[in-house]
Amino acid sequence: MTFPDSFTTARLRAERLTADHLGEVHRMHRDPAVMMHLGGVRDDDQTAAYLARNLAHWATYGFGLWILREVDGGDPIGRAVLRHLLIDGSDEVEVGYGFYPSHWGRGLATEVTVALLALGRRHLHLTSIVAVTSPANRASQHVLRKAGLVYERDFVHDGLPSSLFRTRDSDQERG
User: Which pTM does this prediction carry?
Assistant: First the structure.
């Protein structure tokens, strides 16, 4: 079963990342609020490398990063991801998201996280999905808990203090 290039939720439309999204990824990476808990603002070279890595992930695995818009269209409002991630040498699949501040506090992060968890289970037959967030990002931790992930431990990821969340065994039947 192939993974969908796009999907919708009640309020969001997700489209597969393409090279045409470079301008949008630049816009996100230059926004200090969007990038506050995502490693900080990135320059043009870092953004180009990020895009290349995520396009290669799609080419290799058939899933990855999506650009998010409201379901009725308009400019992008964020991004979401389901991708392979090495954590302490172990290959995991990570769920993640990032939105522009104008869309915070509306439940959109929870909505897209729940959708991606269901897609990961249905299409990839995953029994475990992780999320990584900053220990200081209480809002993201709240989203992850609402979506059914549980805190596992703190660790250092890419040189930064991080918190690891994981789906619970009982959640594997959802979706």
Answer: 0.89
Residue 132 tokens read as: 């990584």
**pLDDT number for residue 171:** 45
**pLDDT tens across 82-100, in order?**
999 999 899 999 999 998 8
- 146 within domain boundaries: yes
81, part of any domain: yes
Residue carrying structure tokens 């992008």: 76
Total of domains in the chain: 1
38 lies in which domain range?
A: 6-173
Residue 146: which CATH number?
3.40.630.30
Whole-number pLDDT of residue 37: 60
Query: What are 92's two structure tokens?
Result: 């995991």
Domain presence at residue 27: yes
Are 147 and 165 in contact by the 8 Å Cβ rule? The answer is no
Q: Which residues of the chain have pLDDT under 70?
A: 1, 34-41, 169-175
Q: Is residue 1 part of a domain?
A: no
pLDDT (0 to 100) of residue 173:
43
